[in-house]
Structures are given as C-alpha cells and as structure tokens.
Prior knowledge:
Oligomer: single chain
CATH architecture of the largest domain: Orthogonal Bundle
Helix content: 55-70%
Strand order of the largest sheet: 1-2
Largest sheet: 2 strands, antiparallel
Strand content: 5-15%
Number of strands: 2
Mean pLDDT: 94
CATH superfamily of the largest domain: Winged helix-like DNA-binding domain superfamily/Winged helix DNA-binding domain
Shape: elongated
CATH class of the largest domain: Mainly Alpha
Amino acid sequence: MDFKNNKTIFLQIAERICDEILLEKYKPDERIPSVREYASIVEVNFNTVMRSFDYLQQTEIIFNKRGIGYFVSPDAKRKILAMRKTEFLENEIYDYFRQIYLLDIPMEEIVGKYNEYVKQQEKQANL
Length: 127
C-alpha cells in the first residue's frame, strides 16, 4: 500500500478498510481479516494495524468477538458515509471552492466533469 505523508498510517489503513466496506468487499456482520493478516496485506507492522482496528472499533464501524475476530458492524456503511460527509463538508470543500474560484471555472464545467465521473463509476460497477 502506498501511504501519503499528510496523514498517519493507521488512519490511512482505517480509511482503506472503510473503502472496502463501502465497496462491499466486507459486508455487515461479516468477519474481516485478522490484525496479522491485514498487516501482511498492507505490509506494515502489526501494531499499526492494531491501532487502525482500535480506531474503527471506537467509531463502531467494526466490533470484536473474543476468540473469533473482528466483524463489520450492521450499520457500518451508514456511519462511514456520515463521518466522511461531515469531514468533507467541514474541512475539505472550501479548498475545492477556493480552486474553482481562483481558476475561474464555470459551475457548468464542474457539473459536466462530475457527470462524466459518475458515468465512469457506473460503467466500472457494471463490469
């Protein structure tokens, strides 16, 4: 896994797991790989993945069944979407607005690019 410098590795791993839940690689009440298995998948130290799992458990996205492993919470998808939407609207959208404003990009062009993106995603989902 390629990591970015602007965010801690354990949070990037947690985001990846959330992405996998949103893409339904892991479904509600389904077991996810163990900490050791996931550490080998993303090629990081066991303790880093443990921090990711602890974070996801605190946010109630996954839960632990002692002796069995970690599982996706029944409403994990809803919680992930709510968290990410809040994060985007409170922290990231203004950077995008700033760039749109500075570059004098008309809203119609933004909408057109967004519609192209949605079509691409739908096409990929149907493959």
